[in-house]
Structures
1.
Amino acid sequence: MRQFCTYIYWFFGLFLCSIGTTLGQQTALPDESVFKEPKTRLWLNTYGNIRISKRLFWDAQTHFRFQETENTPFVGQVAQLYNRHAIGYIYSKQINFRLGGVARVNFNTDESSTDRNVVPEWRIWHQYQFAQPLYSAMIYHRIRIEHRWTQGFADNSEYTFRNRWRYMFRAKIPLNSTKLAPKTIYVSPEAELIMQSGKAVVGSVMEDLRLTSTLGYIATPRLTFAAGLMYSHGQELSNPGIYKQNWTLRFHMYFSPDFRKVRNKLPAIHLKD
Amino acid sequence: MDSISKAHISTIKSNVRVATAVSDTYLDNTLLNILKLSDPEAQQLHTVLERISKEQVVPLQKLVVYSEDEILEFLTKEDILKNLWPNGINESIVAQNEANAPSSGFRSIETVQLDFENNTVASIAILAEYTAEHLTFIENLLKAKLSKQEREQERMALDEQLLAQNNRLSQLIDSVGNTLGLAYQKALASIQTVTVANLSNLSSEEDLELARKLVVCHESMYQLALTVAALPAQSAEIRKLYQDRIWNPFMATLMDEAVKKRISSAYQKLLIPYFLDQINTKLNCNNVDDMRLLLDALHNRMLELRNEDTKKLERKLKKETDVLTVIDVLRLKVVENNPEK
């Protein structure tokens, strides 16, 4: 617990420090915040949650992210292929943790660029999720911390290390049922703040603020589909006074197969009974 | 006592036994006592029976007692006659026979020759034989009368029972009808239709055998109605049984997931509708028990299958839409469709 508090102090210290540093960079900053024209993006995301044992599961996510280009508006071209994996631990019905890695492939969407078209990006990530029933709905608090190595498209560009500090609040509210159950349509409002830190981050601590509304359908306990629209904006790394904006159409498929034998499955649903 | 007398006594004994049996059976017969109130002929036969019993059977029984007590050989002819018939013998016996015979319609094959004074034992033997024959004749008449009466009474009782069964079925349908789905209500209505049709086929004539069968049949119909009325609850039980509580990690919630879907689907979508249809279209007294037993067997089989390894069975059920094949796969006995079974 003490260590956790230290972590939090460090988090806010860094946050304030970044703001101070940002204030110290007056010369590079515009007189007023500049919000760039929003871009449109399309994300197709799959989320797999494969039960390994009574308390462990494999989190397997693959995302296809498209970004508009001048030649292909709206849907655009592939910007990132995203593979996020982790081993998760179910502490209780309400609390779970996970730890894993991300292998992301970034595509150069700047059509005028003569740099490399594809570069990899690596991350180690850990996540702490707290779920809570609230009337017929469920609400979720998610803290996700990522340690991220990125590189630019320019040849021989060095890896840049940054940390990402993410908090997300999400609710899932059933619309045609009294609870989240199969054949239920639900609406899910969601807000996520992504902060970042690292040597390269001089003033742009707010990497992204994402506000999403999603409509989902629980087909079976093991299969859910959802689609939503996300507005996001955040500071550009190169200049904290400039904010990029995005409108993202997101489609999700959630699947959670369980290949264990029946006799192993049965007690797993009652973790502490 | 000479051997001839002994032979006479033996004859008397056997005839007295016959006469006593008739007399005991019919003198206090409840049904005859009721019948004689409405039937003059029965009344007359009962009167004759009473008089013969009193004036002939009782004295003859006394003689048998004397014989068994071995005091007969110490009694003179006069003593015997005086003890058996204190009021005299010749006139009364003859008079009785003359009076009785026409009233019962009995005619002895042989002319009764009685000479109590000279051939006392022989005459008493003849009298005993005559009495036994006469009572047997009366018994046959009464049997026929009582049999008819018994049948009529049984039929009345059966009619009452059938009516009560019909009322009970109506009450059941009224009490559960509205709480059930339409398909079940229709099946219950079909059961009632069949029972009402059965009753209307039952003529007012003396069709006792059919009435007896219908009582048994309608009891089965009621049991079937109870089974049908219980089907929605059973169906809900099966639906719940064929579900697992599944952890949905994305929602952090437990959810119900259908398991062994092919079996539960065959039950819900094929078998139950099929059996309800059978009840609606094929139900009769011959197959009512089969239908009920099959529904019970189906429920029990569904309870068993939940915990059995059913992979092979589920493979066989894949895309199977023929009900009879499904029944076969589930190893249920097929209902007899032929009403003329």
2.
Amino acid sequence: MIPSMMLAAATTVVHASLPSASLMMVMPEEVLSIGSIVLMLVAAWGGQGSTRLISWASVAVLAGAMIALLGPASSGGVAFDGLFRADAFAAFSKVLIYGASAVAILMAPRFFQQTSGDNLRPEYPVLILLSACGMGMMVSAGDLLVLYVGLELQSLAAYVLASFMRRDTRSAEAGLKYFVLGALASGILLYGISLVYGFSGTTLFSGIAEAYAGIAPGTHNYGLMFGLVFVFAGLAFKMSAVPFHMWTPDVYEGAPTPVTAFFASAPKVAAMGLAVRVAVEAMGPAVDEWRQIVIFASLASIIFGAVAAIGQSNIKRLLAYSSINNVGFVLVGLAAGTQAGVAAVLFYLTVYVVMTLGGFLVVLQMRGADGQPVETISSLSGMSRTRPGLALAMAIFMFSLAGIPPLLGFNAKLAVFNAAVEAGLYPLAVVGFVASVIGAYYYLRVIKVMYFDEPVGEGFAKSGDVVEGGLITAAAVFVSPVGWVLLAPLGLATMAAAKALF
Amino acid sequence: MSGFPILSVMLAVPALAAIGCLFLSPAGARWLALAATLVDFVLGVALWANFDIGGAQWQFVENAGSIGVFDWKLGIDGFALMLIMLSVFLMPICIGASWVAIEKRVQEYMALFLFTEVLMIGTFAAQDLLLFYIFFEAGLIPMYLIIGIWGGANRIYASYKFFLYTLLGSLLMLVAMLWMIHYTGTTDIPTLLKTDFPRTAQTWLWLAFFASFAVKMPMWPVHTWLPDAHVQAPTAGSVILAGVLLKLGGYGFLRFSVPMFPEASSQLTWLILALSGIAVVYTSLVALVQSDMKKLIAYSSVAHMAIVTIGLFAFNRQGIEGAMIMMLSHGLVSGALFLCVGVIYDRLHTREIDRYGGLAINMPKYAVLFLFFTMASIGLPGTSGFVAEFLSLDGAYQVSSVATAVCTTGIILGAAYMLYLYRRVVFGDLTKDDVRVMPDLSVRELALLAPVAAVALWMGVYPESFLAPMRKDVGTLVARVDRAAPAGDSRPTIGHAALAPAQVEAHK
């Protein structure tokens, strides 16, 4: 299967290698990079006062990048002699990434305005644009070095974002921690890349696949195998899968909430998309080898993410563990290694991004009497009485994250486990499902606090912010049974996207 | 009625009313909930009236096509019809029982009850495997909230226990469902009912389904969530829990385990019989020593549900019909008993049996109705309980005389704990001052209990009305599982009557 695919890819390379055609295919990245540079210049001269303008302009740039996806960027095939893939898989991931980035920009102004300390500066949306550009390259990478460049562009912007509240020690700590551990992860990844390159002689995914396919049955190529392990370890770091998750809770807790929401959504999609692409396109012939790693990371993430979350009292830390837990479920889809599995991964990510952003939008509403953000779970007490609508939305997100029907979180879990069962991975499915009961416990705890406990004080004041209210409502409606109408089109779209890889 | 999507309408009415309740005043929410449940009851009556007894197996079939991975496909047979009727009959009664007892957060309460009704009807009407699962599992959300918000002192522990216990069981079933979907390539329940799964796979599938339904049922030893949930739930919550939610387990066995995996069912009948036998004796003894009225009735529910399981796994007509009637009868009687407890709980705010006594003197109407339901629970001939127990045990006797003998002791023990309860609460001297001032049943309470009593009596005197719609489905089921029916240990032989000398004389 693989050689024939490569042959097809090779023929398209010839046609697509015209520079102009290649440039058409990277249109979204061009829009984002030119847009971010222009906006940075505006910020340099406009100063603090231009923040609002630049925020909205950044959202417009993201929208423009999304529109640019309509052209050859989603169906062009291979650009720059195989370095860059502009296929449906990349396009689907990019829609999620750009959408989540836009929400992260929209969330920020009110948070920074009301929180004492630093004001929102115009660099915030620009950094998110740069990060989005890097993430777009990650999911489109056809070469290990493009992968690395995209990853670093995304990461460097993210390190700055994590420590964006300069005078807040927790934020500074988060940034530093993220940077040190992220650099370590990049190092591990780069080491893996160098091993793979050394033993296959190429950094192109198609060539690497050939090298893996060339390992005679029964023999071992330790260099390639070690390379594979290191590449997956580096990727696991970026998507915060166990055992490379330890930075997540601290960074999520310390970073400003809009930044945390961003970390929990778009980069996860990018890292997962990248992992899927590397696993299927570059290391497809070594599926039995990487499947063991993925299954281990998946179960470890599901179980650890669930168990460690039980003791948390900070809602942001809880959501951090929840994101680890969810990465485990996404990996179940990847472990299947089939087209259905990849489609399930994309579907899960779509639902997950909406649930998580919704959850963080609710966290943004949590402010004490002095207007300062509060993050303890106990401060949610009795929210069903003081803010019934908000509590209902949060309950929907929590039940959905727990995977209880009729909410869409259930369909997402169903999709990944369905793929796993189809691939014959019954033990994985059984253990994963059983562990999701542990996960249900801590999501239920949030609901318990909101609905069963007596209210403390006045409750959270209404923000009156139309954008945030609208986004919360939209997210809640999406994961509610109303979202069932989207199941069929999403199913088609994810299948089409997954098909691009097989 | 062809073409009119009556089942979807029955789902839509309470769903829309549930959303509406959230935006109304407490009084408005009460009336809207009552109206919606009554509309559903009327629709249910129309459903029964238009059900073609002896006609097609699946009636009122609707298929709105695929929604992603599953189809919106509804349809009912006789079993589902009866259980839907039970749900829509009990629902207005639950709303009525909560009329004054629920004072805080009325809108949310009514919305959750209506949401529960949607899910119950959906579970019984679903013809798609995954759609069934969605309805089946989603029922956890409203019950979790109902127990947790309006429950008693230890409500939070009970709500968690209820939720996590049942979730764990259900997820194992979901894995089995996924396997079945891949094996057959369809999620259509009527097609799956005709599929013969390989023997070895059947055992695993059966066990996975068993994990879910045994918890829902609940069977010993996974019944421990039930007493906690019942005791902590508000009255109407207990009614719906005992009345309908427990039936989901029995319905699951009847709809999936037995017809889809007949060989495995036959192979594992010993397990069911053993667990049921233990359940009947053990929970009856436990019920005997309870000091909390609700807990006593909760344990009696476990014992009654064990009679359902032995009937279902008898593989014959009597057993299956008995199990169905037991589910209906238990739904009515046990629901009514919880209402009876609720009546006096509303007056004295305690469920301790010792705090009452002598109610026959100042609450005669209550004493009569409570006595009737006590007798129905024991299985007095003329009440629904008798028909149910007799048929189930008759069916089970053909499979295992030992298990039947053990389960029959449950009837004796049942009489013991129910009469003991009744004596302590209703008879004796009226010594306590606060009990003395308790007024008799109000018109509202009478209106809640009387219809249930009437139906329980109807089912006891003329069970044919309830058996007729199921007859053909029982026949289909028995024909399907007949090939695997276990050989019974009781082998009754036809006697050879010898005429007595005097009769010989007379014949000449």
